[in-house]
Amino acid sequence: CRTQLVVIPLNVLPSFGFLFDIDGVLVRGRTPIPAAKTAFQKLVNSQGQFLVPVVFVTNAGDCLRQKKADQLSHILGISQDQVMMSHSPLRMFKRYHPKCVLVSGQGPLLDIAQDLGFSQPVTIEMLRAKYPLLDVVDHDRAPGVLVSLCFKYFSVILFGEPVRWETNLQLIIDVLLTSGYPGNPYHHENYPHIPVLACNMDLMWVAEAQSPRFGHGTFMVCLENIYKKITGKDLKYEALMGKPSELTYQYADYLIRAQAAERQWKQPIRTLYAVGDNLMTDVYGANLYNRYLEEKNSRKDSKTWIQAKVAGGKGSNELASSAATHCRSVLVCTGVYNPHTEVPLDTKESRTMIFHGHRDFRFDPALVEPDHVVPDVNAAVDLIFQLENFAPN
Questions:
Q1: Could you tell me which of 169, 214, 311, 346 has the fewest CB atoms within 10 Å of its CB?
Q2: Which tens digit of pLDDT belongs to each residue from 160-182?
Q3: Which NCBIfam families does this one have (predicted)?
Q4: What 3-state class would DSSP assign to 97?
């Protein structure tokens, strides 16, 4: 009896891509996690080129993607095209780009909006200057410098939590209840309201304080409840972006395939590996997108959500076609998740207790179960190379 040795050939071209979270995976604050440098030495060749397509996905939205790329330069030289902010999918909503839009958040909002393609963004401060009587909470606060603005607003874009919540809440409600004509009387019959697009739904975020701090998701809860209290109707979102949104992963999928095409890798990208440290965003989002891919692949000739929503179907086929077939979640233990202190996930009640997702995302306990748990990002890269039988030249 002879034993036949089966040799499995190693793959030298990638059929997979990496979606890396940043905070808690690559860095802690401004300090690089040691395993990240080791991991990235395995991901590039001697010329510094990536051996596999890589996208860095963050829920941050208060800066330009080039700034985030610069912050990672001490680990590895990357281009801004590899960085995906929570607001990056707004590039695909081209039908809003030439119109006047109200933007809420903090940071260089006008620069961010214009970089995304919006030609007529207006900040809350600019709107307040034009309509000083609308913001009356702080009686000692002087109105801003009057500027010439649009007469009608066609949509509201929520980039992140603002500094002055009361001002932003008031003026956004004004715009919604007047169909984009702030300063006019409210008309409750104007429903549905003008489109609202929101980025980053994190209810809380981990800071240097002993307890988590309010995030943009908390601001959204305030806005939703004020709107419903006044009108008796639900605030509707045209789109929700940022992890765990399917739209975010679909856009990241598109960026992965664009990198592969640019490098002229002929092998189709079949599997995405989302590496993160947060059960509620990274793991939940990756598993949710994997479920979407499985349902999409089971239906032939089905029109995707994004084809229906983005740009009225124009220019969206490139985003929706030839998507990956799987998205696997890989949880690392260098950030938010700590295997020694984490709430046990053995009951539905305990999982629901730690879920702080947006109201439009139905909680499913199965979606917080990672496919793999590893100590750090270096172990994640080793595991994935092994799973893919990948050995680049």
A1: 346
A2: 999 999 999 999 999 999 999 99
A3: CECR5, HAD-SF-IIA
A4: coil
